[in-house]
Amino acid sequence: MIFALMLGLSTLQDAPELVSLKIGFDGTQCTVVSDGEPFGVDEVMARASGWAADHRDVRVVDSDDAPESCVTATVFALQQAGIARVEQVREPEPLRIAVLAGAPCRLTVNDAALAIEDLPALAAAAQAGKVKVQLHADRDASYLCLSQALEVLRGHDLIDRVGLVMAPAANP
Fold this sequence. Notes:
By secondary structure, the protein is an alpha/beta fold. It contains five helices and nine strands; from the N terminus they run αβββαβαββββαβα.
């Protein structure tokens, strides 16, 4: 009995590490990132041959900007290289938060109304689930409302970079 448990523990410890590939698209070509190192899809088969020799499985994570052709090409190259198990994971769609014109502060999330008071709970859930957030403000949206939304999102580390262009309202 003890020998069987030790054998099982040994098998778990000897399991090769899973290779994780993130598939994307930079606007002109498919991109692949493994262990923080970017490379092209044309290099996948050469790298995967080594992984196959080590009996490693591969997880393919495709982002929402990756065309299906990029994912298909990557999976095909992995199979051609002899990878026995390929797991495919799709990143969740980003939350689309819009700050709308009008008072009081009006927000929508994926086109459904949301009160500004409910944004912190949503932001906490997005942060926990590592969901990306896209923020859009109507041209005539209240600066105060936009500022409050930005503050909540910043407080939950959901904003890496912000580009903001404000145009004057049609009727100030």
